[in-house]
Amino acid sequence: MNIERFDNRFKKFSKSIYFNHSLKKLNWFNIGGDANIYFKPDNLHDLIEFLKICKSEEKIFVIGAGSNVLFKDDIFKGAVIKLSKNFSRISLLNENTIIAGSGVLDKSLSEFAAENNLGGFEFLSCIPGTIGGGIRMNSGCFGREFKDILISVQAINRLGEVLTIPSKDIIFGYRSCNLAKDLIFLSASFKGNKDKRDKIEQEVKKLKAKKEKAQPTRIKTGGSTFKNPIEQTNRKVWEIIKESVPNKTQFGDAIISDKHANFFINKNNASYKDMKKLIEFVKENVKNKTGIKLDLEIVLVE
Ligand SMILES: Cc1cc2nc3c(=O)[nH]c(=O)nc-3n(C[C@H](O)[C@H](O)[C@H](O)COP(=O)(O)OP(=O)(O)OC[C@H]3O[C@@H](n4cnc5c(N)ncnc54)[C@H](O)[C@@H]3O)c2cc1C
Fold this sequence. Notes:
By secondary structure, the chain is of the alpha+beta class. The chain contains six helices and 21 strands. The chain has three domains: 12-85, Uridine Diphospho-n-acetylenolpyruvylglucosamine Reductase, domain 2, CATH 3.30.43; 88-213, Uridine Diphospho-n-acetylenolpyruvylglucosamine Reductase, domain 3 (2-Layer Sandwich), CATH 3.30.465.10; 216-297, Uridine Diphospho-n-acetylenolpyruvylglucosamine Reductase, domain 1, CATH 3.90.78. The strands form seven sheets. The protein has a five-stranded antiparallel sheet, with helices on one face. It has a four-stranded mixed sheet with strand order 1-2-5-3, with no helix packed on it. Strands 17-20-19-18 form a four-stranded antiparallel sheet. The longest helix is centred in the last third of the chain and has 19 residues, at 272-290. It is globular, with a radius of gyration of 20 Å. Flavin-adenine dinucleotide binds at residues 28, 61-69, 83, 102, 126-130, 132-134, 136-137, 139-141, 184-185, 217, 221-223, 299.
């Protein structure tokens, strides 16, 4: 479904809507074509209005920090929504509970928790996404995941209805959750445990150093490309890739990181096609060499 530029239905959002907007700068890979519509709602009211105006068959994709998505080079025929800074508020509800807007960065939640002597959020300092993306992906590292700290999620559906979903009603898996694909998360509440700020900050420092040592940073990537194939083997996917794929495999500017073989990098100006070729090549080589079937962790936006 193509949402047209001169569609009068969207006139009222003239300050927060962009037509034929490039998606390249909105994601860590720095890859992608234009979106018919890019909408940055100022507030919940505008978001509800927008959803009500869009017909149910119109394609909508919500983006957070764009650290786990790969967009196609073609036009995205629909609307990409990114929540504005008004969805990035964070506050303490009581001494153990934090409420954060979906646009809050994971590292900001981790810092806020430390400032308020709340432990349990340290791992978030190592994930470069937002709360919204973290809930959708059940992101995690060093043995902790979003599901371990989440109390409830506030979300909006395509009809513009706001729902509150307790964490106990959500089934979380490894980098997945069963919440309906068309829900937009607005905010979430999280529980922590009282601890000393110094101790929390020491733990954050330790985790960051561990992460920096093992994975490349400050590069154009989507993080882990494939999930660890935990149902087939307990070996790590980077190890399996390293021994199955020839060194220095490259398609255009799409390359495999030397530091971590499950991190694929846009060296300069890679296209979606280059990155997709690399993904398929690795998948096929791993299957042929080891019999292991790899599943993507990054989200391919169709
Ligand atoms: C250098 C690097 C290191 C990384 N390290 C880790 C790691 O240690 N552990 C880990 O788990 N991941 C890691 N990742 C992947 C990524 O950071 C996480 O998956 C992160 O939680 C994605 O958040 P995001 O806001 O960037 O989501 P995006 O990439 O923008 O989107 C990811 C998914 O979430 C959905 N989404 C985003 N916001 C909302 C919302 N408000 N409502 C509904 N759906 C939403 C999108 O539609 C999409 O399906 C890493 C990535 C990079 C680039």
